Amino acid sequence: MSSDEKVLDFPRVEGTSEENARRVMIEATRLAGRVPELATASTDANAAMGIGAPAIAIGGGGSGGDAHSTREWFDNTGATAGVTRALTVVATMARMAAD
Question: How many beta carbons lie within 10 A of that of residue 66, not counting itself?
Fold first, then answer.
């Protein structure tokens, strides 16, 4: 596959695994009808990054608040966007790795 062909409707470009994962996540978020929001946080992805493996954390869809407290809550309205996004990221990264 040449660098100007498209994977899941956005250009495939060469870069590091971290750059590609970030780019794929951003485009998959847009494809799912959401606005990408990049942030720094402590997540389970930190464990992988701690041993040198590229990793990203993506929201699962829905909304929540008061995390890690006795008032923590979650509303799964719109949560299908999270599944769509996650499957798009996995499929795209697998395709890129195969090329």
Answer: 10
